[in-house]
Amino acid sequence: MFRRRRKPSVYDEPQFRAGKPAGDPSERRAEHTLGREHAGNPEAYRPGGSVYDEPDILPGRVGEFVAQDWTCRNCGYNLRGHQLEKPCPECGRREWYRPAPAGRDRFRQWLSARQQAVSARRSWLSIAGAALTAGPFAVIAALLYGPPGLSAMSVPLIAIVFAPVLEEALKIGAAALLVELKPYLFRDETQIYVAAVGAAVLFAAIENVLYLTVYISNPGLDVVLWRWTACVVLHAGCSAVAARGLVNVWRECVAEFRPPRIGAALPLWITAILLHAAYNAAALGYSWLF
Ligand SMILES: [Zn+2]
Q1: Does 117 lie in the same domain as 92?
Q2: How far away, in angstroms, is 139 Cα from ligand 1 center?
Q3: N or C end of the chain, less CB within 10 A?
Q4: pTM of the full structure
């Protein structure tokens, strides 16, 4: 005859126990942190809040054709009209997320409702806020790593490695934050460029004033001209390249109603860092030679 044993069993799992299941005490801290984060920003979308955000594990959808634009997240191929259990015809990778079933499109509803609620005024104020905060923050960070009186050895390391990484991250930081957490604030992609390039120009302007008044005593006209042309163009140009990565993330989010995948901005952000580093290396080499 069947006898229930006392050893660990699936029947001991919370859903089979009588009464309301109590959470594991070890998870209480995480629960508290997540609750506080959510309370602090009720407008932020919580990934994993719905089973429709989970990888393609729902049964009963085999053989369905994708009826909307749906980018392969490996190669960028549009999988519209394909069956997702088959690999991407372009790169051979299986796309693990599919559009939510009709009427259950949770992220679509979340995004659409907020897009409609955002006025042009609030949208532009947010863009201006992003540019006006990111620029000065990047200057503060730049001052922290670049005090006057550095040893000669640390100058190339800072100029070619640390400065490009830090500055390129901070100049687009606020725009990246908005794209990831509040993509509905942007009405078109131009605004992403305005937020990022605006921050870059402000950063360059503050940096120029500091260099030409504090760091360099009696700068010549050539130095003044160089700082207000080449340096401004460099900062604006590199941030525009990095912003293009954010635009790609935002476009996919609003066109396909998928949570923003900020990691997709990485290749162009790294490109911006490399451009910046190459410029700094050239400028450093020039100053050593002449
Ligand atoms: Zn692909």
Answers
A1: no
A2: 40
A3: N
A4: 0.80
